[in-house]
Amino acid sequence: MRRVPAFAPWAALALAVVARAAATAEAPAPLPARVMAGELTRVDLARRSVSIKTDGRDGPEVDAATGPDTRFVSRGRAVRLEDLRPGDRVVLALGDEGDRRLARVVKVVGRVALPAPSPSAPSSAVPVPPAAPASPG
To answer: Global pTM?
Structure first.
């Protein structure tokens, strides 16, 4: 039996978003060169770029610029670059523009699960001695 890679559903979703965007655009946009999924590690508002840690063992970190035509989508709604947060699970539809990697679509597909809290460390409080037994009488 063949195993489906974990990123396959996100990749298919991103391609559907790109196909829909291309169908509704006035001028046909070039198709993305590749689709990547991962955890958003950085949102740089000054440079208008994002970085993701890609899925997979030892997945590389990928930086991508965004442009005026980049579409940001979350839960079926348009969002802004400023709405993205590190830790978001995203799918990027990427293309190349000159010598830079350009995100054509950034699709938020979920949040990374927060790790369970670790067991609490032993308390540094001073222990209270047990009460003395009551004396008869």
So the answer is: 0.59
